[in-house]
Design brief:
Helix content is 64%, strand content 0%. By secondary structure, it is an all-alpha fold. It has a domain of 69 residues.
Length: 99
């Protein structure tokens, strides 16, 4: 993988995509959690719990990759890499409500 700086227009779009993807993962977690609260079928509950865990893991992966991208671009450009409007600064923020 190349360590060349990303064009500023593409960089901003990538950050927007990561932000949308994290928000989508958080929304999916909320949907599955709502379903779990409504579920009385003991055979379905573990499936829903697994889906919630999967979405939380996806969120963490996205945040980690975003942070790598931001750090790499901050180090390779004078403009810095991490926009101030991102809903996280570190991995593991799945507790945050969906925006």
């Amino acid at each position: 993988m190349s360590s060349q700086p990303i064009h500023p227009e593409n960089e901003r779009r990538l950050f927007e995509i990561f932000k949308m993807a994290v928000q989508d993962e958080r929304k999916a977690q909320a949907v599955y959690l709502q379903a779990l609260r409504l579920c009385s079928d003991p055979s379905l509950r573990p499936i829903l719990e697994g889906l919630i865990a999967d979405e939380a893991r996806h969120e963490q992966i996205l945040v980690e990759r975003y942070n790598v991208l931001a750090a790499r671009n901050a180090a390779s450009s004078q403009a810095g890499g991490q926009p101030d409007d991102m809903p996280w600064k570190t991995p593991g923020s799945s507790q945050t409500a969906a925006q």
